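Section 5: illustrative case.
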């Protein structure tokens, strides 16, 4: 973690402290420009969108992104692992959850997403409903990620009271996500010819309202699948609503939801300048075992073992950084200014799972599964997809740690699923194939991959070797969530204690989220 200053940490945490209960009146312009004149070119709300879009997945400063996502979701997904033994190797990776790190996903979201969304609501709900609707889509995309990390969040009651902030349980938060998407899609359907967003939209959609509706429908499908085990009736209803909307969903790579702030991807700095992140061992096992050509886009060959790709097992005993920093760096996919948050491949895999569950997705699970793989290969311009899809032999490879054989994973520790679809397989095997391929395709967004692993148990990841949780987190069951920020207990204690009561257990990393049942339901 490069030069993280204690003062800077405290200052930014301070921004998030009580951010769910103290709100500044920022509606008065100091230069006397009237709201009416600002409405003419939409600047009354326009400037609020860039910080929202740039902090779903924080671009800058990079060390904030490192704490918001990289040392949580990116690692717990199995995608990546630091070679660096932060805090004497007692840290998030070894399940000693660091409150000073883990408050950042919360403070970033409330400072940059919820505060801005509230201001947009105040200024635009009545007079600029299209802008208000647009903000709701961004808010749902950002805040479902926060809920999928913590569980209960302050959402529907945000900004209602100046002295405390009432939480939504995760179930209630999801209900409100769907309601907000309802309003957004219905409203924006009346503005598809408008270019009002174009000066403020830093996504690759460039202000195209139709594309934002397609993304909203695709996001609805993602959230529907997320709750498919815990609330199968609502999940089916919401999924089929997404598919039946006349604007459709993300179907091609040209429609992928990507943010481009013109700033180098934060993973590039952590990877190359700081040397604080490397390939995860499950990625090595799965990509090499499947002879998957995407490996050269995702990672670089190991400096210590030229001609080979080497990943680090999560949560191992690391004494010094130089032991593993010669393993595979992240590859060309992160050498860009673009941050990928949803792809056509993911949407196709979502439809594959929906079809597997008997929902009306307009096709078969096999057709959507194979299309998802094709879309992912096409995204990177990789050939040989027909051979890959037909491979009914290859399985994830043994993982061998050349520095410490105790970290090896072989035999029953590995998944046995092949790539080729087989209608004779049971639903659990089919689901493992769908999620494994979706996991590969969603790289490098570890937060979403971690959520899907917790929901389904797939792909089969490797347990930590060092567990410093003091018994709070089961090694065999993996980490399930992040505890609520210490700042919330300090500044919003009564409501935070009420929120904890909505959990299935104590406020620690071993308690499952509402949608995380520990078993897939059919």
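Designed sequence:
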């Amino acid at each position: 973690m490069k030069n993280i200053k204690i003062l800077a940490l405290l200052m930014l945490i301070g921004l998030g402290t009580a951010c769910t209960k103290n709100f500044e009146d920022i509606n008065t312009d100091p230069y006397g420009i009237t709201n009416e004149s600002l409405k003419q070119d939409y600047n009354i709300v326009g400037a609020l969108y860039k910080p929202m879009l740039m902090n779903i997945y924080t671009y800058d400063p990079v060390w904030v992104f490192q704490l918001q996502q990289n040392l949580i979701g990116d690692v717990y997904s199995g995608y990546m692992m630091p070679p660096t033994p932060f805090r004497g190797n007692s840290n998030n990776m070894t399940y000693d959850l660091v409150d000073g790190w883990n408050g950042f996903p919360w403070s970033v979201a409330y400072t940059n997403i919820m505060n801005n969304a509230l201001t947009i609501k105040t200024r635009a709900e009545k007079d600029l409903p299209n802008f208000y609707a647009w903000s709701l889509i961004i808010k749902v995309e950002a805040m479902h990620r926060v809920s999928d990390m913590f569980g209960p969040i302050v959402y529907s009651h945000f900004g209602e009271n100046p002295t405390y902030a009432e939480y939504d349980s995760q179930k209630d938060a999801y209900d409100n996500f769907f309601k907000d998407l309802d309003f957004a899609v219905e409203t924006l359907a009346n503005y598809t010819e408008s270019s009002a967003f174009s000066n403020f939209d830093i996504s690759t959609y460039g202000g195209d309202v139709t594309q934002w509706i397609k993304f909203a429908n695709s996001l609805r499908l993602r959230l529907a699948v997320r709750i498919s085990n815990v609330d199968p009736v609502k999940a089916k209803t919401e999924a089929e609503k997404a598919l039946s909307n006349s604007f459709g969903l993300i179907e091609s790579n040209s429609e992928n939801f990507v943010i481009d702030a013109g700033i180098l991807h934060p993973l590039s700095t952590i990877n190359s300048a700081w040397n604080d992140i490397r390939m995860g061992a499950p990625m090595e096992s799965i990509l090499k075992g499947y002879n998957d050509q995407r490996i050269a886009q995702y990672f670089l060959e190991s400096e210590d073992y030229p001609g080979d790709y080497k990943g680090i097992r999560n949560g191992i005993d690391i004494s010094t950084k130089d032991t593993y920093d010669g393993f595979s760096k992240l590859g060309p996919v992160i050498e860009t200014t673009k941050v990928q948050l949803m792809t056509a491949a993911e949407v196709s895999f979502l439809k594959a799972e929906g079809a597997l569950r008997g929902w009306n997705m307009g096709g078969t699970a096999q057709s959507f599964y194979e299309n998802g793989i094709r879309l992912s290969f096409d995204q990177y311009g990789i050939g040989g997809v027909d051979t890959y899809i037909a491979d009914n032999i290859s399985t994830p490879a043994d993982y061998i740690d050349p520095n410490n054989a105790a970290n090896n994973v072989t035999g029953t520790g590995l998944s046995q699923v092949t790539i080729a679809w087989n209608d004779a397989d049971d639903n659990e095997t089919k689901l493992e194939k769908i999620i494994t391929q979706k996991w590969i395709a969603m790289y490098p967004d570890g937060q979403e991959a971690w959520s899907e692993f917790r929901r389904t148990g797939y792909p089969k990841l490797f347990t930590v070797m060092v567990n410093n949780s003091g018994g709070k987190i089961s090694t065999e069951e993996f980490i399930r969530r992040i505890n609520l920020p210490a700042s919330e207990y300090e500044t919003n204690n009564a409501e935070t204690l009420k929120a904890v009561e909505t959990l299935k257990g104590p406020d620690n990393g071993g308690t499952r989220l509402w949608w995380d049942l520990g078993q897939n339901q059919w």
